[in-house]
Here is the input.
Amino acid sequence: MTEKLTTANEIKVFILYLLEKIGYPLTFNELASIVIQDDFVDYFDFATYFHELLETGQIIRNEPAEDGGAGETFELSETGKMVSRGMSSDVLSRQAKEKSYISAQRHLSLEKRDASMSNEIESVGADKYIFHCQITDKDGLVFKLSLRADSYEQVQKMRKAFEDRPDVISRGLISLTTGDVEYLITKR
Here is the structure.
């Protein structure tokens, strides 16, 4: 069962924590979706405390880009970063932090995280191959994986899947290794 965050401090620190972990500006709707998706916070509480954080200068509003981009976005101020770093360990449970960050990663594209992907195929014998792939972003290595394929066709399918949808591969690996496989089973 998901623990519900109920106090103003818990909810505010939760919002600040997620914005810091994500590391780049989000629209109000993107942040709302991430914050409320795991039922730690309901929408009304999110909206109320988000606006309080904005009014107190812990969150900064960025005006829409003139090129018709994403519209108005929000990010942490230096004060918001200090509060997040100083209070998240005291106020939020490990479960709330881990689960919410994993869920946030599902919503966020690798492109927005300024990630780069690489892969290669290594022949290791008669019709045996190792597929190597990795993703890095501004924080360093996201993942590095090597898988054996028992045919050239299979290794080519691995490469195509990785090149076509690296974000899906990354989210799938996070889900599998954290035991959060419901994400892979249920359709959204």
